[in-house]
């Protein structure tokens, strides 16, 4: 039996791997399997300090948005609704610097998109204009915000009827999309457990430009076509598997999770011309590829 244990670390010396070719049959499988096992669970050291680039993508799920507004004109009740979107996607790229102690800092640019689903109205606010315009078309009356205010001021019963119809018709189906372009400064810490597998934690802060295009499926009316730029943050973690390369380079494949929050930006209704707030937050799960050089 061979007692020289130097063969157990041949994966640290690429030139010695050629020696494995002299084994034939079943004897080829054993060293290869042991090498793979040791690469996964053997002692690990951090790659040399230096820059890296990364890309990634995956599934993005937005939380239902709280949509609220208060109005100076008492003929509009406060708006209180929840809007939902379909499951979307996110793609991202980053440039960063990895330190020998496990910390990483980076600048990340990401894009996410969702299709709109529906809105559940609890208090109609200016969303009542959608019901009023449908009523006005059916009755040969003028449409629009000013026409509604005139009609609601003249007939409180009509105002109440339209508001109740808006609530009872919930959830209102929507079409359109939500898009967000984000730049963040991130900081992460790779936890060295002595494996090639390295969990990590961290987060980042930055700015997000959110664009919203909303249409009523029922009437075809455009409700919102606006954008807002806001402060945003993310926290999360994941686990990466590092493949060492010559000259202290490496490729890391990772499974990533992020919780992100962009606060409650303000948008302006397309038909009403009135402002409302919508909360933006959610979760992302995806994969990433990082190349350190």
Describe the structure.
The chain is α+β, with helices and mostly antiparallel strands and 293 residues long. 16% of the residues lie in helices and 52% in strands. The protein contains four helices and twelve strands, in the order αβββββαααβββββββ. Strands 1-4-5-6-7-8-9-12 form an eight-stranded antiparallel β-barrel. Helix 2 (128-139) crosses helix 4. The longest helix has 13 residues, at 29-41. The relative contact order is 0.17.
What is this structure, in a nutshell?
This protein has 293 residues and is an alpha+beta fold. It contains 4 helices and 12 strands.
Task: Please supply descriptive tags for the structure shown above.
293 residues; alpha+beta; single chain; disordered N terminus; 12 strands; 8-stranded antiparallel beta barrel
Q: What order do the helices and strands come in, and which of them pair?
A:
Blueprint: H1 29-41, E1 50-62, E2 65-69, E3 79-85, E4 88-98, E5 103-124, H2 128-139, H3 145-154, H4 156-168, E6 172-190, E7 197-216, E8 222-245, E9 249-261, E10 266-268, E11 275-278, E12 281-292
Antiparallel strand pairs: 1-4, 1-12, 2-3, 2-11, 3-5, 4-5, 5-6, 6-7, 7-8, 8-9, 9-12, 10-11
Helix pairs in contact: 2-4, 3-4
């Amino acid at each position: 039996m061979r007692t020289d244990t130097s063969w157990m670390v041949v994966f640290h010396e690429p030139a010695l791997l050629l020696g494995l070719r002299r084994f034939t049959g079943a004897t080829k499988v054993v060293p290869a399997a042991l090498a793979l096992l040791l690469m996964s669970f053997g002692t690990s050291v951090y790659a040399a300090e230096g820059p890296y680039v990364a890309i990634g993508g995956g599934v993005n799920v937005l939380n239902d948005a709280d949509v609220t507004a208060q109005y100076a004109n008492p003929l509009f009740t406060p708006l209180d609704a929840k809007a939902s979107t379909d499951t979307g996607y996110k793609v991202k790229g980053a440039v960063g610097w990895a330190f020998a102690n496990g910390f990483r800092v980076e600048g990340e640019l990401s894009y996410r998109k969702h299709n709109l689903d529906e809105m559940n109205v609890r208090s109609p606010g200016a969303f009542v204009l959608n019901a009023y315009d449908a009523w006005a078309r059916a009755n040969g009356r003028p449409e629009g915000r000013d026409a509604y205010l005139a009609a609601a001021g003249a007939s409180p019963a009509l105002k109440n009827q339209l508001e109740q119809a808006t609530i009872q018709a919930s959830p209102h189906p929507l079409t359109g999309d939500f898009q967000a372009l984000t730049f963040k400064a991130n900081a992460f810490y790779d936890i060295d457990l002595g494996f090639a597998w390295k969990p990590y934690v961290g987060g980042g802060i930055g700015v997000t430009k959110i664009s919203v295009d909303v249409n009523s499926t029922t009437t075809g009316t455009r409700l919102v076509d606006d954008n807002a730029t806001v402060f945003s943050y993310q926290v999360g973690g994941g686990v990466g598997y590092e493949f060492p390369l010559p000259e202290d380079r490496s490729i890391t494949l990772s499974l990533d999770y992020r919780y992100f929050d962009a606060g409650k930006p303000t948008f302006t209704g397309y038909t009403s011309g009135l402002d409302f707030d919508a909360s933006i937050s959610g979760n992302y799960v995806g994969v990433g590829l990082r190349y350190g050089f």
